[in-house]
Design a protein that fits this description.
3 domains, Aldehyde Oxidoreductase, domain 4, alpha+beta, globular, 20 helices, oxidoreductase activity
């Protein structure tokens, strides 16, 4: 699977992402290689076009805009068409949004990860909308026999001011198909936008409120069977035997059989209970008896894993250059930070509906990586990829977990064996116990200050379970010795690499059998806590204001402007006697800064009074979606910092549901104020960058109030 998942190279992505199309009555595509535009006959478009996204206009003027990315709450169902509509010159109330199925030849790469939807696609989408609009203008000018330069478009119509003529897009599409599209179009300047940059209401909200939105569990098919799977609580063990005597007595239970799912380089086993209702399947599993063979599996605990991570921090051989400079520093600091394993805990547990039949596969589900699912099933089931159709439903959260291909694979194997469509449903306990998880991480940080109180030496050694290591042929082999400066550290602000004369990074991978994978903001979620907590500790060591200390090291104009804005919106320079903490991180092309304000309540318990967040994501589409994403990231960060963690005992997950893996409740959420930087920078991500600054900002605020440094997550606020 590693080769399959990495099959889209950067060059392939750039090549494919330049393609776009206008379909039905008017069709075209723009080649990413030669930038030529070709007109497509509308009757044959579906069979001959290789596209990235669709704009469909019929003779009645009905406009459909295709969203080729999955919607898991982050807002692509609104932002993708909002970009298209801006240059197409139509209002959002004039369009219908349609979700695309997986088709890399037609739509290009469709993985929903890395906060990439806008930052990766905006230019192609803008050009697509502008080209379509210009072709319609050219069609109207030809029809009226007037200069193209005298015509303009607005609200789905083309106007000729000198003669007061106007025509709707629907009446022009037939003529537009006869026109050679322009090879170059002029895009609007941001000051002329009427849709982009505006807080327009999301078009998916009404359907989610009235219940018509289709999530994975909503999919129904004739003859659909429902399955739940009893999986090994120790992840990788085999099914030795099972007794389904009592299970088959449950009314509605149809089948009980062994099933596998591919998790990285291993096949994990389980026993599936299949019934004519999900309730019957769940009741049947309760009385199922399974004996597991866990031969060769290490029954590790969290305590053992933590010991290993601490020991790993000492494994890299000293860096002579760094050690020499470190000893020359006027003042030094050496500390260790600890972050735990985390579950993804999407409000919608995993589920997938698959029908394997007639040398084809149909898939419906909450999938972040439709292309990967399509390619994986094609390879594993030996079915041509063009015969694997993956339909994306709405996702009730994803956070990286629903990018994995294990749960569609499990459903496909059951469908093939039973020769029927099958919907596999994971319970909350299934989701929590089986993982994969965000890996825990330990950080050994050392820093040296010069006589002026500036950082002259900065070192971070990371000990964690590397994501993707399990794709190797020997996933749990002893990791190779770590070398220094093989790369940076995700989350650390880029200007530090210029302002710090001597920096040193190293990492050691832990050897444990627990499956791990991406979690919202990936490594930045743990790195950000360590780096920004350490920067704050160095500021205190230098006896400098934490914001001024950062300003002295972040010398580029963009970062100086960011700090100016953060100080202004928070009134940092006139802060009160409460505890104030700041943290600024960078990932996925964006800069995010949080200021957290804490105090003691009447019962002398610590409380968070307010969070002020600033997001610099450059060019952006919808400010309300940005604010919602930052708020959601902060709430998720609050849970990870103060409420929950995954622990292991005897090789099994301890926390199994929300009674022990506590989630933030509405009363736990303080006031959150979100601001957005206005600048001309390239677009960056939004869904993930808002999370990493929260934990360090909170811990820095607690230190400001109490003098106590928190270097291990999670911690209980009311115990500080």
């Amino acid at each position: 699977m590693k080769d399959q998942q990495e099959s889209f190279s950067r060059r392939d992505f750039i090549r494919l992402s330049g393609l776009s199309t206008l379909s039905l009555t008017l069709g075209y595509y723009i080649s990413g290689c030669d930038h030529t535009v070709k007109v497509i006959n509308s009757q044959t478009a579906s069979s001959v076009i290789e596209l990235v996204a669709w704009i469909s206009i019929d003779t009645n003027g009905d406009i459909k805009l295709m969203n080729h990315r999955s919607e898991m709450g982050q807002g692509t169902q609104q932002t993708i068409p909002q970009i298209l509509a801006e240059e197409l010159e139509v209002g959002m109330d004039q369009i219908t949004v349609v979700s695309a199925s997986a088709n890399p030849k037609k739509y290009g790469p469709q993985p929903q990860e890395g906060s990439f939807s806008v930052r990766g696609w905006c230019q192609q989408l803008l050009k697509m909308g502008a080209t379509a609009r210009q072709m319609l203008i050219m069609a109207a000018a030809k029809q009226w026999n007037v200069p193209v330069t005298e015509c303009s478009a607005k609200n789905g119509q083309v106007y000729h001011q000198p003669t007061n003529q106007k025509a709707g897009y629907g009446s022009l599409v037939e003529e537009a198909t006869k026109i050679k599209p322009p090879s170059n179009v002029t895009l609007k300047e941001r000051k002329d936008y009427t849709i982009i940059g505006k807080p327009l209401p999301r078009n998916d909200i009404p359907s989610k409120v009235n219940g018509t939105a289709v999530f994975g569990l909503d999919k129904k098919l004739p003859g659909l069977l429902y399955a739940v799977v009893e999986r090994n609580p120790r992840f990788r063990g085999k099914v030795k035997s099972f007794d389904d005597t009592e299970t088959r007595k449950i009314i509605g239970v149809k089948h009980v059989c062994k099933v596998q799912r591919a998790v990285f380089g291993s096949l994990y086993e389980g026993v599936a209970v299949v019934a004519n209702s999900i309730w019957a399947a769940m009741q049947g599993r309760k009385v199922l008896r399974v004996e597991w063979d866990d031969t060769g599996f290490d029954y590790v605990s969290t305590e053992q894993m933590e010991v290993q991570m601490r020991q790993n921090l000492k494994k890299p051989a000293p860096s002579p250059q760094f050690e020499k400079v470190f000893k020359q520093a006027s003042d030094t600091l050496s500390v260790v930070y600890e972050t735990p394993y985390q579950a993804h805990s999407c409000m919608e547990p995993l589920n997938c509906t698959v029908h394997v039949h007639d040398n084809r596969i149909d898939v419906w589900g909450p999938l972040q990586e439709a292309n990967w699912t399509q390619a994986d099933l094609s390879q594993r089931m030996n079915i041509p990829i063009e015969n694997v159709t993956v339909h994306m439903t709405f996702l009730g959260g994803g956070f990286g977990r629903k990018a994995f291909t294990d749960y569609p694979h499990e459903a496909a194997l059951l469908s093939k064996e039973l020769n029927a469509p099958v919907q596999v449903v994971w319970t909350r306990e299934d989701d929590m116990i089986a993982g994969p998880f965000r890996p825990g991480a330990f950080f050994a940080c050392r820093g040296g200050l010069d006589k002026e109180g500036k950082i002259m030496a900065f070192q971070t050694i990371t000990s964690t379970q590397w994501i993707g290591q399990e794709w190797s042929s020997t996933p749990y082999a002893d990791p190779e010795p770590a070398g220094y400066n093989k790369g940076g550290i995700e989350g650390l602000l880029q200007p530090y690499y210029k302002s710090i004369p001597h920096y040193s990074f190293a990492g050691i991978g832990n050897r444990v059998p627990m499956p791990v994978m991406w979690w919202r903001s990936v490594y930045a979620s743990t790195n950000g806590f360590a780096c920004e907590s350490f920067i704050d500790e160095l500021a205190h060591k230098a006896q400098k204001d934490p914001m001024d200390f950062r300003r002295r090291h972040l010398l580029e104009n963009r970062y100086q402007a960011f700090i100016d804005k953060l100080e202004a919106v928070s009134s940092w320079k006139s802060r009160t006697t409460k505890g104030w903490g700041v943290a600024i991180t960078q990932c996925f092309g964006s800069i995010a800064g949080h200021i957290v304000i804490v105090s003691r309540n009447a019962d002398k318990k610590l409380q968070i009074d307010k969070i002020i967040a600033l997001m610099d994501c450059g060019w952006y589409v919808n400010p309300d979606i940005i604010k919602a994403q930052v708020e959601g990231a902060i709430v998720m960060g609050l849970g990870a910092a103060c409420l929950h963690a995954i622990h292991f005992q005897d090789g099994m997950t301890v926390e199994k549901n929300f009674d022990t893996y506590l989630m933030p409740r509405i009363l736990d959420i303080p006031e959150i104020e979100v601001h957005i930087m206005e600048n001309n920078e390239k677009p960056g991500g939004v869904g993930e960058p808002g999370l990493p600054p929260f934990a360090p900002a909170l811990c820095n605020a607690i230190f400001d109030l109490t003098g106590k440094r928190i270097r291990k997550l999670p911690f209980a606020l009311d115990e500080i």
